[in-house]
Write a structure and sequence with these properties.
globular; 675 residues; 4-stranded mixed sheet
């Protein structure tokens, strides 16, 4: 680090590691805010709005090529007000200008670079630009502003109109009963795009997309569709065996650059790993595949070791690069492995596809598996137990060497929404595997959010770093926190979590809900200062905040006996039903809500001294149409009234507020559900 930097700009006062990376660029960067926009207006200058995130490889490349270059900076500083945005802190800003890029160029990605008028309306946007193209583009727009400023005004009007028109939702007034045939049709439409050999979709790059496979698990549960289950298991098997997974330490990279999960884009994001913990835990419930349990435990261990703060909060990501080279921290040459492992190198190299020529580039190999333990053990004429012992010992030795390498950069900001996803992952893993440490981590983080991010009235903040929060929360922060607290209630039967979930839900209904469409805006009504107030509808690598809010309303409606919540959830689903039918892959979280409306929801009340043991027995089973509630005492939930029988632990299976006779064993209760 240069202790006497030549240049320092306004980003020096920010907490985001991504913004701080640019604080000593010769470009006079400003953070997003009134100061930059007012300066642009006062000086009649165009805006450059450059958006990225700390773990983004091509963001770093563009910084080195252009933003650290004095010649480029001179053009930018003289003619533009330059704004740097961390998209993870301000996805609302990113959402607006990403839409512009997609409208103008037909594609998006990061870095995202938008050119806008002083009022923020974009007239051009694109992604990565090499230095020469960047300079040519800047010169072109400087010339346009001087000679034909009206052309920029006209372009900005057209683009802004297009931004307002995208994801426009109309309140759809109709009655609708959802059925399994709807799910059947959606799967048949999706099926040709599924790679049943390597998993994921028939495309490259491949992203994990956890909600897509969660949806298919649920669909298979309802329809007993073997192809749907195969799509899930083939995907999960290949991801856990592939190069996208870190076989030494656990945890997943953001995506695979190829169709075989072989070469990852090496950054590791909290949101991916949080959701994949949930997915693999649910898949273990459904299949009892030991690979899935191993994957959950190792991924949680990675999060614990690398992404957990001393306060029990979770950091955002690890960079793809170290020493300026993508993946350098993670890959091995055959010579390195031979030197570290000696006689056991041959087995390890066969197990993880390490070759003299390398299975990647420059003679390097990415650890990945193609063969089962049985096949490798047979090839080396040893038992599977001996193989596992040798591999585990070898991994310890290689980790010692890897830990001496220069680590990828850590983005240590704490985002409420991503932390909530990790709470859900930890709580789900606890429910499935019964590890108290998993529950403790979930509760610790939930209490952290209550203390640092959630006010008494339910208002939230989005970010936390160095003891302070500086950004108002967005809908995803609220939605995923509510979902996490619902999951925590089912893991603990502590009504505190439902009370908090309902408080936050009431706040979102007051400040984000749009009665005219029946949907939620992404931004708070008091902090909606962008050129468009958008709604986030489609599910992607993270589910959309609207789909998550709709699921929350459905579940809370059942837990709290609030029919108006359930009605709102159904209306939201009806509003997007055509999109769900057309493209379930990008509406999979909506699809899970649709599945919940397709079949009866069972409310299972477990009451009495032995409630914890009975609940854990229930959680050995994959039961997506069941919600669990109960405890030693009746508590305040209407569904628990008159359920407690002194001296007994009973299980009441209820449906539509009607309950069967109390059961005393989990087997009896499962029989009432039809399992």
């Amino acid at each position: 680090m240069n202790n006497n930097p030549v240049y320092t700009n306004e980003l020096i006062n920010e907490s985001s590691p991504y913004l701080l990376q640019h604080a000593h660029n010769p470009v006079n960067w400003y953070p997003w805010g009134d100061k930059a926009l007012q300066k642009a207006s006062a000086e009649n200058k165009m805006l450059i709005i450059s958006i990225g995130y700390a773990a983004c490889h091509w963001c770093h490349v563009m910084e080195h090529e252009s933003f650290e270059d004095v010649e480029v900076a001179k053009i930018m500083n003289e003619n533009f007000i330059c704004i740097k945005v961390d998209r993870e802190e301000r996805p609302d800003v990113d959402q607006v200008y990403m839409t512009a890029a997609q409208l103008i160029t037909g594609r998006g990605g990061w870095p995202l670079n938008a050119m806008a008028l002083a009022d923020g309306r974009p007239f051009y946007a694109g992604t990565y630009f090499p230095k020469d193209k960047w300079m040519n583009m800047l010169a072109y727009f400087v010339d346009q502003q001087q000679k034909q400023p009206e052309s920029l005004q006209k372009s900005a009007e057209q683009v802004t109109k297009g931004i307002h028109a995208t994801e426009h939702v109309v309140f759809t007034k109709k009655e609708k009963t959802f059925s399994i045939s709807d799910l059947d049709k959606q799967f048949e439409t999706w099926k040709p795009n599924i790679d049943f050999t390597r998993g994921g979709e028939n495309r490259a790059p491949k992203f994990p997309m956890p909600s897509a496979w969660q949806y298919l698990l649920h669909y298979n549960y309802l329809g007993n569709n073997e192809e749907a289950l195969k799509a899930v298991t083939v995907t999960l098997d290949n991801m856990a065996m592939g190069g996208i997974y870190d076989h030494l330490q656990g945890g997943f990279a953001r995506y695979s650059t190829d169709a075989n999960w072989h070469v990852p884009h090496f950054e590791k994001m909290l949101y991916d790993n949080a959701q994949l913990v949930t997915l693999y835990a649910q898949a273990y419930q459904a299949t009892k595949n030991p690979l899935y349990k191993k994957t959950v435990y190792e991924t949680i261990d990675f999060v614990k070791q690398e992404l957990t703060s001393p306060e029990g909060a979770f950091y955002a990501s690890l960079d793809a690069d170290s020493e300026g080279v993508e993946g350098k921290f993670y890959v091995w040459t055959k010579e390195e492995v031979d030197n570290v492992l000696g006689d056991d190198a041959a087995i390890f190299s066969a197990y993880y596809n390490i070759t003299a020529a390398g299975n990647w580039e420059h003679g390097n190999s990415i650890l990945l598996r193609n063969e089962t333990d049985v096949a490798v053990a047979e090839a080396f004429k040893i038992t599977v137990e001996e193989l596992k012992s040798k591999i585990d010992a070898a991994k310890v030795k290689l980790m010692q060497v890897r830990n001496s390498r220069i680590k990828p950069g850590l983005d240590d900001k704490i985002l409420s929404s991503w932390n909530a996803l990790m709470i859900t992952g930890y709580a789900k893993a606890y429910r499935v595997f019964g590890e108290e440490a998993f529950l403790n981590a979930a509760v610790t983080n939930a209490n952290f959010l209550l203390k640092k991010a959630i006010a008494a009235d339910g208002e939230m903040t989005r970010n936390y770093k160095n003891g302070r929060s500086s950004i108002n929360a967005l809908l995803d922060d609220y939605a995923f926190t509510i979902a996490a607290f619902i999951e925590l209630y089912q893991a603990t039967f502590d009504e505190k979590w439902l009370t908090e979930a309902n408080k936050i839900t009431s706040y979102t209904l007051e400040h984000f809900f749009d009665a005219s469409s029946g949907m939620f805006f992404y931004t708070h009504n008091q902090y909606a200062d962008l050129i468009a107030r958008k709604m986030e509808l489609s599910d992607n690598v993270i589910p959309s905040s609207n789909s998550e809010m709709a699921k929350n309303l459905f579940l809370l409606g059942h837990f709290l006996n609030k029919d108006e919540y359930i009605s709102k959830a159904k209306q939201m689903l009806i509003n997007v039903e055509a999109d769900v039918q057309r493209n379930i892959y990008f509406y999979a979280n909506w699809g899970m809500l649709q599945a919940l409306f397709t079949s009866p929801l069972y409310e299972v009340a477990i009451m009495g001294d032995d409630f914890k043991n009975k609940r854990q027995q229930f959680d050995e089973h994959y039961l997506p149409t069941v919600i669990l509630l109960g405890g030693k005492q009746a508590g305040s939930l209407a569904l628990l009234h008159n359920k407690l029988i002194p001296g007994q632990t009973t299980i009441s299976v209820c449906r539509d507020k009607t309950c069967g006779l109390p059961a005393t064993s989990v087997e009896q209760a499962l029989g009432q559900i039809g399992k």
